Amino acid sequence: MARTLFDKLWSQHEVLTLGGSVSLIAIDRIFLHERTGSVALKSLRQAARPVVDPSRVFCTMDHIVDTLPGRGDDTRMPGGKAFIVETREAATEAGIRVFDVRDPQQGIVHVISPELGIVLPGATVVCPDSHTCTQGAMGALAWGIGSTEAEHALATGTLRVNRPKTMRVRFEGPLAPGVTAKDLTLALISRHGSVGGNGYAVEFAGSAVRSLEIEARLTLCNMATEFSAFTGMIAPDDKTFEYLRGRRYAPQGELFERAVAQWRELVTDEGARFDREITIDVGELAPMITWGTSPQHAVPVTGAVPTLEQSGTPREAYERALTYMGLEPGTRLDQLAIDAAFIGSCTNSRISDLRRAAKILEGRKVAPNVRAICVPGSMTVKRQAEAEGLDQVFRDAGFEWRESGCSMCFFAGGESFGTRERVVSSTNRNFESRQGPETRTHIASPETVAASAIAGRLADVREIAAAA
Amino acid sequence: MEKFDRLTAVAAPLLRDNIDTDAIIPSREMKSVSKTGLAAGLFAGWRYTTIGGRDPDPQFVLNKPAYAGARIILGGSNFGCGSSREHAVWALHEYGVRAVIAPTFSPIFFGNCIRNGIVPVRLPAETIAAIAAWVEQDPARHQVTVDLEAQTVAAGGALQRFELDDEPRAMLLEGLDAIDLTLKQRPAIEAFRNRDQAARPWIYL
Q1: Backbone angles phi, psi at A168, to 5 degrees
Q2: Helix or strand (DSSP H, E) at A233
Q3: Which residues of A touch B88 (CB under 8 A)?
Q4: Which chain B residues have a beta carbon less than 8 Å from that of A431?
Q5: Do B149 and B194 share a structural domain?
Q6: Model confidence at A19, in pLDDT bands (50, 70, 90)?
Q7: Is B166 in the same domain as B193?
Q8: Nearest one of A289, A312, A295 to A452, comparing CA atoms
Q9: Per-residue pLDDT tens digits for A355-410
Q10: Residue A122, phi-psi category: left (phi > 0), alpha (psi -120 to 50), beta (remainder)
Q11: What does the alpha-carbon distance between residue B54 and residue A67 come to, in Å, rounded to a whole number?
């Protein structure tokens, strides 16, 4: 019978069925970080339960750690240092590999996992972090869990999982200039709602997805959680295999070739049935930006703040979002002055993101009164960017250039943007107070952030590109 | 984990869609590596008049005297979206909440509820709106009953059935520890591992 990619991943890891739609699923890779992994490790230790297979568990410091130059364990976050120290101690004691504060390969979990070849096609990967779905871009079944579930995975090598339904989202056609994976995901969520993927494992497919490079695919899958999906995934192909070849934890030599032969089977068979299918013609898409307090509140950057009817949002939520964001219906988004610009996060902080942003910034200056920050997703990305001279482009333009970590996507390092400041951000969540108390976040692609930082207002990256 | 069978309690309506875990407990309120000490940070951004302060905002539903002792939350769709932080569920639990009724839940939040003895009840938005309207007439007296055994919610003379899979339902009813339960399957897990190691040696580092 024709099977979907998800069906194959599921059945390959199914140890037992546990009744109803719940199965015991074998877990191949566990990633932890100091915010939620610390609690899981501490709790396991208190219960005297050992980690069954520490060689397949990894840990990074990204959620609390400072991103300021010269950082150590100290952080402005109240109580933050204890998370770092306790995570290090517990992980080391359990025999888990830690990408510590000063490790040259430290970085955001969903950036370093592919970078180091920890996530592989056909693997199950879990992490107590909602954006674990990012890693599904490698052809893995990767999903976010809570800390208690992380304890379960660490202690048993398995999870009890309720089988999700399947959805395929096909992005078809050529991408217009200035339109990126970030815009695809914002377009999907704005059309089908922040709850549109609830209950589904979503496979992203179609000609536009095939044309995306691996880093862009990671961006696309990253926001499956903002779609309320169980996870997102993309069938692996030659781009995936070439990306992984020679990476530190990927199989090497003859074993790699054997793995690739198996990984080639990880595609949805012709005629396989999904519970739901969505097709989006990407030819008509423009760069997107959010106006409200949910990722579904996204419109083309050339658009205006929608009216209640256009917004597709219940009145109370609509009015609350407008008040919070300090907006009036009908205002053009590209007329809104900004206070800050942020490039970073597990969504858009990889080398290709920084290259595209740097292209916009080259020879230009950030507008006066705009605070601009770039936080590379990993120390490897940072070194690569510095080798290419991108750090100088960012600095010359007026951006701060940071060490890697989650940073001001939220409260990492104890830093946030100011009250009612308007921030354009390459991150994934524009929730109330996510980036700071009452901070007004507009999420967009890194190039849109760069273009806006220069203009001092939300800006269409295509204007700047055209003016060059 | 404590068992859940049936609960009759004050229910607090918070009928906004997309209530995220940052709103349920902001990052700044998670101050130590602990599953406890979190109740004071519950809904901190909405519950208090200042950031980091503790002066209650009288407009927020849980601060209204009529909702004192609320153990059920009536929520909007996509409840618990955003960060996977289980602190959101621990904070709710420590505050006293044992059931959340919403049209849809974020999948991670839903799983976290099951593992911590909170019943996530899915009902249609219109049904929840009707329950909230009845509750608001007299919150202290118009209490809501969640019966997990019968899989029903009783409010204002109306009885609504809700769906929950057998496995999570049994976990909640019996207060089971998932790890203990799974460790009983050790022979099956080891057999799987031996087969899998031969088929996919690169997975085993």
Answers
A1: -115, 130
A2: strand A231-233
A3: none
A4: 18, 20, 22-23, 82
A5: no
A6: confident
A7: no
A8: A289
A9: 999 999 999 999 999 999 999 999 999 999 999 999 999 999 999 999 999 999 99
A10: left
A11: 30
Note whether A35 and B205 are within 8 A (CB): no
Q: Give the total number of structural domains in chain A.
A: 2
pLDDT at A378: 98
A36: tokens are 């939620």
Please check whether residue A188 lies inside any domain of the structure: no
How confident is the model over A34-89, as pLDDT tens digits? 999 889 999 999 999 999 999 999 999 999 999 999 999 999 988 899 999 999 99
Q: Taking CA atoms, what residue in B is nearest to A16?
A: B188
Print the SS3 string covering A114-177.
HHCCCCCCCCEEEECCHHHHHHHHHCCEEEECCHHHHHHHHHHCEEEEECCEEEEEEEECCCCC
- A402: Cα separation from own chain's centroid: 19
Q: Which residues pair with B121 in a beta bridge?
A: B101
% of chain A beyond a pLDDT of 70: 100
B50 with B139, same domain: the answer is: yes
Q: Is B152 helix (H, G, I), strand (E, B) or coil?
A: strand
Banded model confidence at residue A107, pLDDT cuts 50, 70, 90: very high
Q: Is residue A71 part of a domain?
A: yes
Answer whether residue A141 is part of any domain: yes
CATH (domain of A75): 3.30.499.10
B170 in the same domain as B185: no
Q: Which of A163, A186, A201 is at the close of a domain?
A: A163
- What band does A468 get if pLDDT is binned at 50, 70 and 90? low
CA atoms within 13 A on the CB side of A234: 33
Report the residue of A64, A226, A228 to disrupt the B interface, i.e. the one with the largest count of B CBs within 10 Å. A228
- The tally of domains found in chain B comes to 2
| B1 domain residue, yes or no | no
Residue A465 pLDDT > 80:
no
Query: At residue B60, does pLDDT exceed 90?
Result: yes
Q: Using an 8 Å Cβ cutoff, are A160 and A141 in contact? A: no
Last residue of a domain, one of A163, A193, A223: A163
Q: What is the pLDDT of residue B32?
A: 87
Range of the domain at A457: 290-467
Whether A298 and A154 map to the same domain: the answer is: no
Residues B40 and B96: beta-carbon distance below 8 Å: no
User: Three-state SS for B83?
Assistant: coil
Phi, psi for residue B54 in degrees, rounded to 5: -135, 15
ipTM over 0.90: yes
The per-residue pLDDT for A263 is 98
Q: Which residues pair with A299 in a beta bridge?
A: A289
User: Does B90 lie in the same domain as B12?
Assistant: yes
Query: For A144-179, what is each residue's pLDDT tens digit?
Result: 999 999 999 999 999 999 999 999 999 999 999 999
What percent of chain B is modeled with pLDDT above 70? 100
| % chain B with pLDDT above 90 | 95
Tell me: do B142 and B202 sit in the same domain: no
Residue B143: which domain range?
6-174
The enclosing domain of B80 has a CATH number of: 3.20.19.10
Task: Evaluate whether residue B135 is within a structural domain.
Answer: yes
Is B139 in the same domain as B198? Answer: no
Q: Which of A15, A79, A145 is opposite residue B188, by nearest beta carbon?
A: A15
Of the candidates B35, B104, B201, which has its C-beta nearest A195's C-beta? B104
| B29 plus B127 within the same structural domain | yes
Q: Which residues of B touch A21 (CB under 8 A)?
A: 165
What digits encode the pLDDT tens for the residues B102-145? 999 999 999 999 999 999 999 999 999 999 999 999 999 999 99
Q: Contact B185/A15, CB-based, under 8 Å? A: yes
Query: Residue written as tokens 């601060």?
Result: B63
A325 within some domain: yes
